Amino acid sequence: MARTETYDDTVKPRKGLSLAKGPVLLIGIASLVFGVLGFIFANQSFTFDVPDGTVNGSTFLGIEGNGWTWTLFAAAGLLLMLGAPIHWGAKSMAFIVGVAMIVGALISLSDGSDILGIIATNDWTTLVMGAMGAGLVLLAMMPRVGKRRGGAPMATRTERDSELDTPSERRFGRDRDREPVDNGRATTTQGTLEDRR
Questions:
Q1: Integer Cα distance of 143 and 49 in angstroms
Q2: CA-to-CA distance for 101 and 196, rounded, in angstroms?
Q3: In this predicted model, what pLDDT tens digit does every residue of 121-134 receive, in sequence order?
Q4: Contact 68/120 with Cβ under 8 angstroms?
Q5: Does any domain span residue 131?
Q6: Does residue 181 sit within a domain?
Q7: Torsion angles phi and psi, residue 55, rounded to 5
Q8: Within-domain flag for 8
């Protein structure tokens, strides 16, 4: 006889694996470490000339920056790390930081040497900011995978039982089909008087 599985609807569904949390955490760590190292080994100046002046810095691993540049990378990494433990937090923070990086890269591209006279940049700084921003925006769209509804199988039942409509039919339906058992007690015969003769 074919058997079907029943599931416990009271068990919370398995949430599945987040495709955003891990990559966002890794990008956050890399950005934070890069910002700290750039601040230590490169220019530490926080001078600015807002809004259209020119500021310069020194290079670290080919990327030009001043104190504001390294602070930007470190702050972006810290925000990503804070949002990474939760799926929706990782996605939200990835989108916010990603859009900020893309906007900064576009301003730097149009200006050529800095962002609004505050953040020193060169071509490599612009490229890294743009690539990081695009990657984060893509990660902000990542779903969970492997989501399953309901709990684990609890018991099995026959197809006949599954066709019964109500709980009382499931409980007593099998008893109605059984033959009467003779246990020595008197039984009452059903039917008319003529039938019993």
A1: 42
A2: 96
A3: 999 999 999 999 99
A4: yes
A5: yes
A6: no
A7: -120, 145
A8: no
